[in-house]
């Protein structure tokens, strides 16, 4: 099986005074603006790191659901936040770390089974496999 999806971006102008838009094939994002100020100076709006975080959190949550299902558990809810660290490194900037913080309600699962599934999902999620960065995890089983 091979699945291909696409996203696109258009940039106009210089690095600090320019701006761009990002769009997705589905149209969920349609010419959403991004800029240097939104990425590096805290101005409200989108940036590549939050888009990477959303992609990683959604992929991880789906992977965790699959692994729990294979173990005989059906999660009621999995909520994951991915915090992406962009830092100055030799030669420019790099994504150096991503921290996954997940909370899940999984009837019947004990802590050991949940933690095993959570760690397998962190390692096996297709988006996790993309990164040359430290990926950490804080997984909590709720109620």
From TrEMBL:
- Cross-referenced Pfam families, in alphabetical order? OsmC
InterPro entries documented for this protein: KH_dom-like_a/b (IPR015946), OsmC/Ohr_fam (IPR003718), OsmC/Ohrsf (IPR036102), OsmC_Ohr_Peroxiredoxin (IPR052707), Peroxiredoxin_OsmC (IPR019904)
From the Swiss-Prot or TrEMBL record, give the protein name: OsmC family peroxiredoxin
Instruction: Give the organism the record lists.
Output: Halomonas nitroreducens
MF terms from GO for this chain are: peroxidase activity
A biological-process GO annotation: response to oxidative stress
Domain of life, per lineage: Bacteria
């Amino acid at each position: 099986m091979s699945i291909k999806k696409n996203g696109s971006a258009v940039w106009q102008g210089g690095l600090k005074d320019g701006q761009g838009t990002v769009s997705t094939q589905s149209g969920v994002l349609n010419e959403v603006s991004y800029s240097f100020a939104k990425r590096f100076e805290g101005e409200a709006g989108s940036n590549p790191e939050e888009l990477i975080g959303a992609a990683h959190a959604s992929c991880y949550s789906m992977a965790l659901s699959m692994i729990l299902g294979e173990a005989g558990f059906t999660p009621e809810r999995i909520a994951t936040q991915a915090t992406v660290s962009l830092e100055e490194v030799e030669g420019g900037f790099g994504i150096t770390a991503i921290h996954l913080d997940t909370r899940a309600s999984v009837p019947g699962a004990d802590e050991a089974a949940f933690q095993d599934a959570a760690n397998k999902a962190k390692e096996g999620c297709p988006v996790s496999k993309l990164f040359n960065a430290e990926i950490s995890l804080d997984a909590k089983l709720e109620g």
